[in-house]
Amino acid sequence: MKDTEEKAGEPDTEALLLDQATTAAVREYLQLVQTSQHDHIEIAKEGPPRGAIFKDVKVSGGDAGIIYQDTVTTMALRPFHLVRPLFSNQKPAWKEILHGIDGIVNEGEMLLVLGRPGSGCTTLLKTLAGITDSFHGWSGRVTYEGLLIDTIKKKFRGDVVYNAEGDVHFPFLTVLQTLSFAVKMKTLHKIPKRSNQIQSVTNSILRIFGLEDTTSTLIGNDFVAGVSGGERKRVSLAEVLSTHARVTIWDNSTQGLDSSNSVRFGEILHEYSKTGNNIAMAALYQASDDLVGLFDKVTILHEGQQIFFGTIEEAEDYFSSLGFERSKRQSLSEFFISVTETGLRSTKEGWQDRVPRSVDDFVQCWKASTYWASLEKAIVDQQDAALGHDSQMQNDSHEQKKASNKPEVEMQEGYILSRGAQLSATLQRAVARLGGSAFYNTPDTTQGFFSRQGVIFFGILFNTIQTLGEVVTQYARRPIVQKQQGFAMYHPGIDAVSSLISLWPLKIVSVLLFDLVLYFMANLKREPGTFFIFFLFTYFTTLMMSALFRFIAAVNKHEATAMSIVGVLILPLVIYTGYVIPKTSMHPWFKWITYINPLSYSFEALIANEFHGREVICSTLIPSGPAYQNISHQNQVCPVTGSTPGSIYVSGDLYIAASFDYYHSHIWRNFGILIAFFVFFMVAYGLAVEFVPQVEKGRGDVLIWLRHWGSRRNEKSQPAVAPSSADELSDSQGFARLKRSDKSFSWNHLDYDIHVKDGTKTLLTGIHGYVKPGTMTALIGESGAGKTTLLNVLAQRTETGVVRGEILINGKNLGKDFKQQTGFVESQDVHMSESTVRETLRFSAQLRQPLDVSDKEKNEYVEEIIKVLEMQDYADAVIGVPGSGLNLEQRKRMTVGIELVAKPSLIFLDEPTSGLDSQSSWSIILCLRKLADSGQAILCTIHQPNILRVMGSQVENTEWADIWQNSDEAKVVEQDLASLGAPKQPSKEKDAKQDSSSISKTSLFHQYQLVQTRSFQFYWRSPVYIHGKVILNLAAGLFLGFTYFQEKNSAQGLQNKMFATFSSLILSAPLMNQIQPRFFQVRDLYKSREEPSKMYHWSIFAITLIITEMITNLITGTLYFIPWFFAVGFSHNFQGNRGRSAYMWIMFMMYELWVSTFALLIAALAPNAQIGTLLIPMSFVFVALFCGVLQPLSQLVQFWHFVHYASPFTWLIEYVSSQFPTFQPSSSELTSQNKGPLHHRPP
Questions:
Q1: Does the reported pTM lie above 0.90?
Q2: How many Å apart are CA 261 and CA 239, to the nearest integer?
Q3: Closest Cα to residue 888, out of 721, 716, 717, 726?
Q4: Which of 17, 457, 897, 1126 has the fewest CB atoms lying closer than 10 Å?
């Protein structure tokens, strides 16, 4: 042990030797891709050394002032804020993120970027990769092989790739599908045996990263089961390597990997760079000496300033010359970063007052050093030497493109495949991702005219509504497409179009099945040609609407905004088809919509298709009755538009010509117009995805404040990093008041099996261990070893599989209140982003501490936890989302705090240091250590301990389980487990009584108060969602109001008023689509953290969400009702009777409440947002189809009468229709033959 401690702080020279298997695998890969892929930037075989040079790189980001949390009020005042700069000379102050960074990395070299969180490491890497869209601006010079980064982005895209910290993949693709697609997109199209080559390269990459056993497993994500977190990270790394880029840039790419796999990744990168003459630049946290030793150069950043650039050895010598001393057992990366932290750095004797302290001191020392002078000279020398070679290199590159037999335009953009090949490949991947009875037997008489129009209109309406769900899917795809665009795999526009095309076969099936049922059950014309035309138009209408809605999503950054626009757009598309309101009744200010409405052309063609050539017998002749039994048909007339006096038959062609001005000769003209609309929207969709920015300007890890707090704390405009100095952490006074645990936790002979496709798979076998009060136990192991699985089993958080063995507390079986008595800190920091830190901690304390503890005591305990976790500086900051709000360390501290405020007897933590740098990790672990010393029992998984290198690739064949079982230490553990057992279990009756009494720590009413308050805050601080609802309702009310403006009390006017009411009901579909994403956001939080912890009852979750949504809909629904009610002219019917007007408002508000509850019900039944949006059209069918408007009750099949009465639309329309006054039609209305059908059939 002594020898180990002495050598722990020094690099292990044996570990620096590259693993032979890794070296061979990487070289095999490089040899394979040389024949199938193409280096766009030509390697300089002669002349000066070439590589990457960056000089005086500066970046400015978000507003340097205070950043406030947006609310409904601030969003309402935003127009005034936008106008204010026009009358003010004050210019916005932008925060400088980077201040003049320099560096040079030659071919075959690796650069390590180090710095504390917030120092600018990610910003530097993104800038070097040319990803600057999220910044306000940048300046400086970045070149690769003598080419500017702007040239690289335009002509050699894919030679410089950036791998972000997060792992974003299509969760329902397997590992093999993901990687083979990546290889396919980077493999030349015209090479011999291309499919074999793709398979060979893919297999090589799988071997390099040890993923051979996961090929058929789904990638998954945080909510979809798939490969482990470490394996998902390796898939991300493999995907980047598959691009065969000349320059690879890695941002904290070892997050989630254990020490062994982290070093293995470094070895892969080292061999890839050296053998392939490539360049690698990486920012790493918690990098071991074995990993750091693989890099050639290092640059260190501090508060956006560069304080060193050079080799690893030079960096150690440089900081030693400044008076800093490397502590015992401190890794090199920790030493380089610790020099900027007053409480963590060590100085030589007598140098305490001479070392640099401020960032300006460090910059001054750096620029006065010989290392800085050498760097500047190297940059100047290489730039001068390269000037004479730039033009020749570009000419050589041009010749190489010609030799590759690829289109010049594609090669200039840096893509390997042509657009056609990209389309083919993305289509293959997209494919891998992948009410007729209401009108039953429509009569063949004039009585069926209205129903035939209704069934055709319904066919168009349903296919329009069901494409609404495609808006949601576009936002789930964006981060993945953006990442792969950065790899130059394909154009985003090509992928967008291919994803649209990939659905065409599926839509053929779905539309055909829908049409078959609807068409033949509704007894439409039984002719093959007419059915084919019906299918052709409904199919292309569906495709056209799909492309339109996707285009709207592509030009909007927020889903709520896109849904508002789509919801408003649906109304003119549906209303101005010519069915809901005939052309002759349209007001001139909106009649033009008909001519630019693609649905109107589909409706005209389908009506003409159905009525052409029909001679329909008249169902009722005038005059008729007992007094006219012997009258001749020559003296009778059919009261249907287009009829001929003296004839009992009505020509379908005359009927549609007189009623709608429709003609059969327009069918194929209309089809051409529909195709033109479809092509236009599809091209517009592709161009929007390709060229419209899909990301907003980033704020960075800058704290966001509530306005009333931020106005008093101007100093909070800068990022607040939690103190981590040793002096501050050594103060344990705050720990004294923490609840001390008196319970021991043990497990013995633990097995865990799950059911898989081929039978049963064992994940855990014979596991035993314990945690005593006042101790902290770590679960360590390689990626995929089962650390998180064991932790979930012990914490009772598994939902599938079979667990065998003992899990005991103080020797007793676990009670029903076990989850309430313990805390579980997940590796993902899932929080309500609109809440503040203090609000979140108080929420947890109020719900999880016993009811007999006063609110004052709970809040005081929260303040103690804030002090213990050193969160005072940002306790009133809004949590935000990663990249805009709390940084990683602050979020992790808060996640721990949420569990601590509950006073748990045991805390489980899953990888609490994942993604953090060494100092932040040490700060978190030291805090946990102090919690344990104060009496807390802690069990946690650690993903990068310093010992796993021994258990990694160097001793792969060792049976560690057998060694452990036969060791003396294992026997000691067995003895300890025996001593923790209880001689006798209490009676089951007593246990049950105790469990039931402690299941609920707070009353249901108290739970409701707290959760309802948070729900109101959540909505108030979500202005994009609220404003989206306001815009949708207000715009719809105004539009419908002026569409049916001041309708008269005539036959046509009353029918239009009825359709004005029905049009209002169409609004329910986009309203329900708007609600659902909101529901899934809240439900994910509840399911992942709050429900497992038994914070509050599930009914409270449902009730509070329903009430909040209902109140919101009442307010926004009123904004719809007021312009609609007065503009249509309903107020004329209620003159002198305000009570009836108020009652009509109440009826509409009941409809708004139904929309809220029904949308939430559908969302609750759906597993995810995508499925939820698919359920809405079918639900809409049942409530809209049977309400009596599209098909009168008298003609509705008897079986569906119960749905008619169950539909809420029925009662609203019936009430509105019952308010229509009695009137005497004029003679012109009775005899007119050139107006639309006078069908007023209120339900």
A1: no
A2: 16
A3: 721
A4: 17
